[in-house]
User: Fold this.
Amino acid sequence: MTTVISTARTVRVRHGALRRTFLRRDGLLVNPPGAAAAAPVPCIQFAGLTDDAWGGQTLTYEGAGKERVATDEFLGAHTRVVLHFHDPRRKLLLRWCFRLFDKAPGWESFIEATTQSLPMGDWRKENREDRLDTLPCDVRTATLHLADFRPATDYHNTFVTRSVHRYKGNDPLYLDGNVLRVEQADGTGIVLVKLGPSRHDRREKVQATFRVTPSGVTVLGWGIEPHEFVPGQMLRSHSLVVVPYSDGEPGAVRALRAFFRRRWAAAFRAPTTIMVNPWGGGGRYLYDHMTEKWVIEEIEAAAKIGATHYQIDDGWQAGGTLIDIAVKGALPDNAYWKVHPGKFPRSLTPIAAAGRKNGIGLGLWFLPDLNTDYRSWKSEARLLADFHGRFGISYFKIDGVMHRTKAAEDSLDALLREVRRRTGHRVLFNLDVTAGQRLGFFHAPGFGPMFPANRYPHSPVEAANKYHPQNTLRNFWQLAHFIPSHLIQVEVPNILFDPAEFADKFERGYKPDDVHDPRRYGLAYCAAISLFGAPLLWLQPSRVKPEVVEAYSQVMALHRAHRDRIVAGDVFPVGDEPNGTSITGFASVTKSGGYVVVYREVTPHSRTTIRIPFAKNGRVRLLLSNTETSATLTKGVLHVRLKQPRSFGLYQWER
Assistant:
């Protein structure tokens, strides 16, 4: 139950066991005084908008309200609490909004504002004081765990950088990242997540996302620059998620998953996909051979390899390719997005029929008009909804995104929501973080399984986007601490490709001494990396060898048989962090049992123990392995043996 009580002296918000109290001070809301006797400052601020040119505060708190919000295009049912502020001189209306989801710990907050008077002061100023919230917490006794996310994954293999800090003294400590976990010695704490771009992609000029002072943690950056305010137009900031937890890091992972289960409700509750995308088998071949006959053959092969969906990538459209829009600046219209009559003389109708016949859902690649900041979102929404209605397209891969302005962010968001509305909530999206300027890892999963990386076996030997199984496993393992694992697409490429097909001035195979050549790991291992994720069969299934189909289809059949029960549990990365020489894995834990997959990388150690969070004793049975193996679960500790390096085991246990 959610309550909000506003009196002459305080404002109190309560959601289950969670409480937040504000003091009313000179028309503003401040935190109650804590152990640190610092002068109170307003919890929220936008420099030059909520204060005057001399720094004097001009906002006045006017009251609070709440409303019940049913499930919308992407969110779960929740209560919305709104704290209202007003500045009559500037005709400024500001709403500090809190989303409190049913059966989920914590809250999401954001700020909405409209003004007739633009922000005061020098808009070029660096290190702006734009506060999303100031949270009181005992930072002197806490350990601060920071996670910094880096998108544009085409160019590197470090998606998440984690660091640990302690606060000493009185000077501000600036920490830059998307996630900050403030944990006390007893394992209790709060997780703060900024639902916006990483520091590498943000536009606003703040010194860092988090500022730690004796009185607590301030979260900086609205995601809005001063010049982006338009008189009379309501703008919304990026969101802040605050989730309390206990039981240390495993408890934080569990609490964050429980929150995102409600926050990302549409994506979370959709069946986990096994998506074929043929771009991974070579874009040039795709451009040269994409025809009605070939795509039908691909769909038939997708069914044999164990997929649930086939996604037609760039090249189906009549007007040009990605290069024309993203590189050459073309302005696509509806004629641009007509189905290519030479490749598909009967449009996509036979493709849709082949999908139905073979039990394969359809996805389609699409590049919204980034060159006009997505101003044509309404016509593009009608276009995509029409593709759903005519051909049953249920997933759209959205590519080439550039969030260079607030207007671009809002228009693209409007496009995705309008498509959901027009299709009766039957369409989801795959957004990627591979390049461009994008909202990133905590934006994409809300719309459907996130596409985190392009990785190709046939890339040049030294390229960052060269496929290596240990890198894929490491990146997936790191992301799964923060993002539900089944909302992360995990690439499963054709490791038995023919290097001669891609012959050019670069070496396209693997070095003879490469211990992480995927062929050394084997087909089953490379496919099994995706067992707790959303497998992305990153290949052209009609062109792979029979042994690839045999191995991948076995793993995908196992995924389909157990995916719903895996998703129903609390999923944890377990074991050591993957680095090419570790023993690592994932576990899904429920009250009655669970699943665990263990990977032995290139290490001489065949035995290890792995603690499974919140598990006890259990009867373990093997579901699949590529080596001799044994496993027992006693008092929450898995004792496991995998005989050979580069091996894995998937196990199920019951209490």
User: Anything to note?
Assistant: The two ends are 33 Å apart (CA to CA). The domain at 584-654 is CATH 2.60.40 (Immunoglobulin-like).
